[in-house]
Design a protein that fits this description.
The chain is an alpha/beta fold. It is built from eleven helices and 14 strands. Helix 3 runs parallel beside helix 4. The longest helix is centred in the middle third of the chain and has 16 residues. The radius of gyration is 19 Å and the shape is globular. The two termini are about 15 Å apart. The chain binds N-carbamoyl-L-aspartate (NCD) and zinc ion.
Length: about 350
């Protein structure tokens, strides 16, 4: 990585957690990711959910068709795990080459998770098969019991589910997705080899006050929900440390403006328009810019046993104003991005 006072050139990064959606929405958002990242792991929570390797193969083709000409971008896929996922399907997924893992959504935990796993006891066979065939488990780590406070769901998931998975199948690689708490960061740090976590820009930059700042702020609502300032600080410490277990996953999750600004607004923050710039701001503020490349471009690839990307991207320290909204498909739908109308301190100026 090369840094000067006002530019930063790093190995082309990967995004280990992205929502691309489908159809016109897919076409609208893929270019934002493809211009900065070499690869991205596309989440399978579509309607219908991507529960088969065959469905993922078709989805991959549709993603590739949305990549602007001239950009070398490679989508990676993950199978949507259900109570009914068979070891045969896991084997097929592993053989496909472009499927890096399977995603565990506890049923009811988040957007389009109704087909998700109803109990961990239903999927031990599939998890064993994943360990055998080298697929990584990506986990949305929240319990869904109505009696558990929404701010405590991640910790309860660690205690009731995740620690059991990690202990019972020692050969299974596990990525604890979009961690939000100090407790989660500690759990990952203290875990056996083969356990890692992704961290989003919003959980590094905002605490839960941002949801209620002067009124209800639907564009700061995502799942897992933002947490306390102490949690945010612990995540910044983890991401900007030299611990290889913490790496980049934006969880950029686009929803149309009207679906966010509604009586029952959707969960998800769109950050792909400025993902690497947002992370650069975090690392800069922490005085750890020199660790950005490791977090963004090395640790995730190393964890998955994939080659690091060859190209580079360059950021310049230059203030710019994020648009209030972007086009979202061919109709009149709009997409409100993270930091809409606000300024960013870094700007992506080149990709090679
Ligand atoms: C995601 C989405 O909209 O698909 N929403 C979110 O708030 N992060 C789903 C998810 O990753 O939980
Ligand atoms: Zn997500």
């Amino acid at each position: 990585m090369k840094t000067s006072d006002d530019t930063l050139t790093l190995r082309r990064p990967d995004d280990w957690h992205i929502h691309f959606r489908d159809g016109a929405h897919l076409a609208a958002v893929v270019p934002y990711t493809a211009r900065q990242f070499g690869r991205a792991l596309a989440m399978p929570n579509l309607k219908p959910p991507m529960t088969t390797t065959a469905a993922l193969a078709d989805y991959r083709t549709r993603i590739l068709a949305a990549v602007p000409t001239g950009l070398a971008f490679e989508p990676m896929l993950t199978l949507y795990l259900t109570d009914a996922t068979t070891p045969e399907e896991i084997q097929r997924a592993s053989g496909a080459g472009f499927v890096v893992g399977a995603k565990l959504y506890p049923a009811g935990a988040t957007t389009h998770s109704d087909a998700g796993v109803t109990s961990i006891d239903k999927v031990w066979g599939a998890l064993e098969a994943m360990a055998e065939h080298g697929l990584v488990l990506q986990v949305h780590g929240e319990v869904t019991e109505p009696g558990v406070d929404v701010f405590d769901r991640e910790q309860a998931f660690i205690d009731r589910v995740l620690s059991r998975v990690v202990d019972r199948i020692p050969a299974l690689k596990v990525v604890f997705e979009h961690i939000t708490t100090r407790v989660a960061a500690q759990f990952v740090r203290a875990s056996r080899k083969g356990v890692a976590a992704t961290v989003t820009p919003q959980h590094l930059l905002l605490n839960r006050n941002a949801i209620f700042e002067g009124g209800i702020r639907p564009h700061h609502y995502c799942l897992p929900v933002l947490k306390r300032e102490q949690d945010r600080e612990a995540l910044v410490e983890a991401a900007t440390s030299d611990d290889p277990r913490f790496f980049l996953g934006t969880d950029s999750a686009p929803h149309a403006k009207h679906a966010k600004e509604a009586p029952c607004g959707c969960a998800g923050i769109f950050s792909a328009h400025a993902a690497i710039e947002l992370y650069a701001e975090v690392f800069d503020q922490a005085g750890r810019l020199e660790r950005l490349e490791s977090f963004a471009s090395e640790r995730g690839a190393d964890f998955d046993g994939r080659a690091r990307n060859r190209g580079t991207i360059t950021l310049r320290r230059e203030r710019w104003t994020v648009p209030e909204s972007y086009e979202y498909g061919p109709g009149s739908e709009r997409l409100v991005p993270f930091r809409a109308g606000g300024t960013l301190a870094w700007r992506l100026v080149d990709a090679a």
